[in-house]
Write a structure and sequence with these properties.
It is built from 15 helices and six strands. The chain folds into three domains: about 150 residues, 3-Layer(aba) Sandwich (Rossmann fold), CATH 3.40.50; about 60 residues, Histone, subunit A; about 80 residues, Helix Hairpins (Orthogonal Bundle). By secondary structure, the protein is of the alpha/beta class. The chain starts with a helix and ends with a helix. It has a six-stranded parallel sheet, sandwiched between helices. Helix 4 crosses helix 5.
Length: about 300
């Protein structure tokens, strides 16, 4: 082993530092992380709320098998698409994964775009009630009848602060906010104190922020076209045969799968599937960029290589 590699291992071990590479979808996070892994003893920890689901490979742009063989990846393929997975569980899993990586003398690099998961890790979890299947099912049934914009309007009446942060089509978070209100009688915004919880390691975060929005949109369209060509619809069709899925499950509300579900149900045509998937991905990227711009601790991604070297 070279002296430089020895120094990097000692730096990661002695300082107990984890690094995060955040960015919007299709910004090139995975490509950059894999390139950095050629120069540094990295292990990658996924920060992606869809990659935790087994079998959802194409639509989540999971690292390929060769990529995962070349660089160890964590927090991928953890649960079936029918199972719940939360930001709280992510925090527990991420803390354990980072500790294991540091214990091996490697450098943890958290990579992804699920900003709620990053915030849960960096700042802790608020004391919110556990998910209640009956309440969620009731809200889902109401949404199926009235539409999510109407549910968003209901949320605006009981918790205007939470509603102001959410898009009218953000079904998952609208459902959670209404669920908390119905279970506790207290707005979720009042329970989300943002209280920090200390981490057992230092965390340095870097952002990959595309400067050319048009170029990002082109990459989003090209990637969604590639997903369709690779068999996104067939992947979902197979998952529907394998699992007892429904359109209200968090896994099935993931961008790409939500639109493919509507196509399989006959609600939209193939061209409409493409257009809806690209539009939804653009909206996701917009929300991610808003989150990123409100995180003051982020440094530019171009500085990550030097930071990994301990400079």
């Amino acid at each position: 082993m070279s002296r430089a590699a020895d120094r990097r291992r000692a730096f990661a071990r002695d300082r107990s530092i984890a690094f995060a590479l955040l960015g919007p979808t299709a910004s090139g996070k995975t490509r950059l992380a894999l390139a950095l892994a050629l120069q540094h003893p990295l292990e990658i920890v996924s920060v992606d709320s869809a990659q935790v689901y087994r079998g959802m490979d194409i639509g989540t742009a999971k690292p390929t098998a060769p990529e995962r063989e070349a660089v160890p990846h964590h927090l991928i393929d953890l649960v079936d698409p029918t199972e719940p997975y939360s930001a709280g569980r992510f925090r527990e899993d991420a803390l354990r994964a980072v500790a294991d990586i540091l214990a091996r003398g490697k450098i943890p690099l958290l990579v992804g775009g699920t900003m709620l998961y990053y915030r849960a890790l960096a700042r802790g979890i608020d004391a919110l009630p556990a998910a209640d299947a009956r309440t969620r099912a009731q809200i889902g049934a109401e949404a199926a009848e009235r539409g999510w914009p109407a549910m968003h309007a209901e949320l605006a009446r009981v918790d205007p602060r939470a509603a102001a942060r959410l898009e009218p089509a953000d079904a998952q978070r609208i459902q959670r906010a209404l669920e908390v209100w119905r279970l506790t009688g207290t707005p979720i915004s009042a329970l989300q104190t943002g209280a920090s919880a200390p981490l057992p390691f230092a965390l340095r975060a870097f952002a990959l922020l595309p400067q050319d929005r048009a170029a990002l949109h082109e990459r989003i369209a090209a990637r969604f076209d590639a997903m369709l060509k690779a068999g996104l619809v067939d992947e979902l069709r197979s998952l529907r045969r394998q699992f007892a899925l429904n359109a209200q499950l968090p896994a099935m509300r993931a961008v790409g799968y939500r639109q493919a579900w509507r196509y399989l149900e006959g609600d939209i045509s193939a061209p409409e599937l493409r257009d809806a998937g690209i539009a939804a991905t653009r909206q996701l990227a917009k929300r991610q960029l808003t989150w990123l711009r409100n995180l003051p601790e982020l440094a530019p991604a171009r500085e990550l290589d030097a930071a990994l070297s301990g400079d």
